[in-house]
Design a protein that fits this description.
Layout (H helix, E strand, L loop, with lengths): L9 H10 L9 E2 L2 E2 L2 E2 L1 E2 L8 E2 L2 H15 L18 H8 L6 E4 L2 H12 L8 E5 L4 H13 L4 H4 E4 L9 H11 L3 E7 L11 H10 L3 E5 L18 E5 L12 E5 L1 H4 L41 H17 L1 H21 L1 H4 L2 E3 L12 E5 L3 H10 L2 E2 L1 E3 L3 E4 L8 H17 L1
Parallel strand pairs: 4-15, 7-8, 7-9, 9-10, 10-11
Antiparallel strand pairs: 1-5, 2-3, 6-12, 11-12, 13-14, 14-17, 16-17
Bound molecules: pyridoxal-5'-phosphate.
Pyridoxal-5'-phosphate (PLP) binds next to α4 and α5.
């Protein structure tokens, strides 16, 4: 990363925008209008904006359905192969081989499928480690698997506690993993923690878990499309992510899943099965002997949801051309600039704590701002000014400038608005 000396004047922000090699991507998105102009949309961590190309991709499938009906499954651009179309870009985004990734279901469903495969308590090896304050859906999924297997979460679920700043150090994680040792069956942690925005060291965590013989999985809801990942190289066992946050594919849209090839090529690996996981060369023989596809496709349950997958592909096409390493380079500058403006301004800095690590290699786009007081009032005032962000109890505003469609000027305007609101009280 090149050293940059930030300046707090608007001309400096505009200069960075002029020099931004990714600036044209902004024009590929539809912006909510607030007060007669584009909203300052800093909520790509929750729901990414709609690419303009989505309607064209969706309409293509609607037209095909209208004109061909069931024949669309096997025509020259067949629906039966639709789930293969996004693999190349998905593999690039998470650092995987194409047969290790697939888009299917939703995140929580995929997490259940992964737990069915990777949580096989045996004897005293039955503990699961997650982070305290994990996203409720992940917590529910995990505890429900434990209960189904007659494991009591209050005995065998380890919730690792962050330090008082909300930070998980690798030393502490490694200590807790070693302590659990051969009683540990599975580690499930976030790539980026949704509340604090901390980017965890996936490779080191995977190595720690493997040293004690546990499987390791990651929830990448806040990491996919945000930061470059190297899941194959890091030997992560499995991962899941949603496509509607940084990946801009639309509310509730299809989820991504990864299983490392050392498991996914094993057709005897335990799993919950469905007909779409059946070897495609015999799938339509409709026989009852399950012979799964090799690779993660052997975990598919159902034929793809074509209408929503079309939106996913529209968005992936933008990531394919922008490239995640280029996006990351801009993101470091963009969020770095926000961090600079908030911490170098006395009127702002004394009113907030930034929960997200100061070290840029330990965060993605998002900064989580803890307000000592009046957080909700400040949030409402910013909203009225046309800023879209999100609110987390008790006093946290999460802001995520994204490199695909946000500008340095927006970051500067946001920090000016915040300063103004704080001074007005
Ligand atoms: C957004 C998010 C989810 C959402 O789950 P869905 O199944 O897509 O509704 C789950 N876990 C984490 C950590 C998230 O950030």
């Amino acid at each position: 990363m090149s050293e940059i000396i930030y300046e707090s004047n608007i001309e400096f922000a505009q200069l960075l925008d002029q020099k931004d090699p990714l600036k044209s991507y902004r024009d590929s998105f539809l912006f909510p209008q607030r007060n007669g102009k584009n909203a300052i949309y800093f909520c790509g961590n929750s729901l990414g904006l709609q690419p303009k190309s989505v309607s064209e991709h969706v309409n293509y499938e609607l037209k095909k359905w209208a004109e061909n009906g069931v024949e669309g499954h096997f025509d020259s651009d067949p629906w039966v192969g639709h789930h293969k179309k996004g693999k190349k870009t998905m593999a690039m985004l998470v650092g995987a081989k194409e047969h290790e990734v697939v888009a299917m279901n939703n995140l929580t469903t995929n997490l259940h499928l992964m737990l069915a495969s990777f949580y096989q308590p045996k004897g005293i090896r039955k503990k699961i480690l997650i982070e305290a304050g994990a996203f409720p859906s992940d917590y529910f999924a995990i505890t429900s698997h434990m209960e189904q297997k007659n494991v009591n979460p209050s005995d065998d679920l380890i919730e690792i506690i962050p330090n008082e700043a909300g930070y998980f150090s690798i030393d502490h994680i490694s200590e807790v993993i070693n302590e659990a040792g051969h009683e540990l069956a599975l580690v499930l942690l976030p790539g980026i923690q949704y509340y604090s925005g901390q980017f965890l060291n996936i490779g080191e965590i995977a190595a720690c878990a493997h040293r004690v013989g546990a499987y390791v999985g990651f929830d990448l809801a806040h990491a996919a499309g945000n930061v470059p990942l190297t899941l194959h190289h890091d030997e992560v066992d499995f991962a899941v992510w949603c496509s509607y946050k940084y990946l801009n594919s639309g509310p509730g849209n299809v989820s991504g899943a990864f299983i490392h090839e050392r498991h996914s090529k094993n057709t005897d690996f335990p799993r919950l099965a469905g007909w779409w996981g059946q070897d495609e060369t015999i799938r339509f023989k409709m026989e009852n002997k399950f012979q799964p596809m090799s690779g993660i496709d052997g975990w598919m349950l159902s034929n793809a949801n074509i209408i929503s997958s079309a939106a996913h592909l529209a968005s992936l096409a933008l990531f394919e051309s922008a490239d995640i390493s280029q996006l990351r380079e801009k993101s470091l500058l963009l969020t770095g600039y926000l961090y600079f403006l908030l911490t170098s301004n006395d009127n702002i800095q004394k009113k907030i704590n930034i929960l997200t690590p100061a070290n840029e290699t330990e965060r993605g786009c998002q900064l989580s701002l803890f307000f000592h007081e009046k957080g909700r009032k400040i949030f409402d005032a910013l909203t009225k000014e046309g800023v879209i962000m999100d609110w987390r109890e008790p006093n946290v505003i999460r802001v995520a400038p994204t490199p695909m469609y946000n500008t340095f000027e927006e970051v500067k305007i946001f920090s000016d608005l915040l300063e103004h609101i704080l001074i007005e009280g």
